[in-house]
Amino acid sequence: MPTITNPYYTMLVKGIEETASKNHYDLFLCSVNRDAKKEKNFIESLIQKQVAGIILASIRGNHDFLEQYQQSGFHMVFMDQSISIPGDRITFNFYQGGYLAGRHLVELGHRHIAFVSSPINTRYSRREVLRGFTDALAKDQIPFSPDSIIEGVHEIETSTEVYEYKNGKYFAKRLLQSSPRPTAVFCINDMTALSLLHHLQQANIHVPKDMSLMGFDNIPLSEISYPSLTTIDQSAYKIGALACSTLLDKITNPTLPSVDISLEPSLIIRSSTGAPPK
Fold it and tell me: What is each CA distance from 173 to 149, 178, 247, 277, in whole angstroms?
């Protein structure tokens, strides 16, 4: 896992662990703290320990080193991100998620919308969410320039501060300095949106009266925040459960053909989005 500080990955793990437990398998969890080198070291260590298989939510850009293990018969299932090598994968339609978010804000009447994200080019999922979002705005000829995108920097996990919380503080500062100020903001994940919500409230910006705010993931915290967070449901538990059942099927019957399953998003409308201020 890239990290365990974001509850999205906690839900993924819950789906994996409960499915594994029902089938009498134990789970070894490796959190790489957003470190690609650490991810490679963990994979090689697990293979040396002769685990039955690996479910990988990768942050690496290059996965060629995995092919040698696949060719030797080692079982892997890839989830969450796009991986260039062949194999079993359980993914998500990130493009459609971004598109649903964009259409929701446009249909509410917003014309000046910002997109805030961790570094976009480091993850396939982020690029696809942004692509869907911009296409949704383009459908109604809503202007969206590079200046409407605010990216976080230095994607590093520390022991003293959650990365998404730090991002939210940075994004709030940038948004409050912008002129004209956007009437709506779409965040790459719920944790970033919840941190941004907190810092906007500290600056006396009322959501959604002054600014609508939207996340992506539908983590449990998004439902109990105030206001509750409009978001895109990413079926994290289901992705984890499907990834585990796919791996167990392949362990039982290695000759099964590879699967490539993509789950679809759904829009969850709550209280953090509304019409733009007049």
Answer: 14, 9, 44, 20
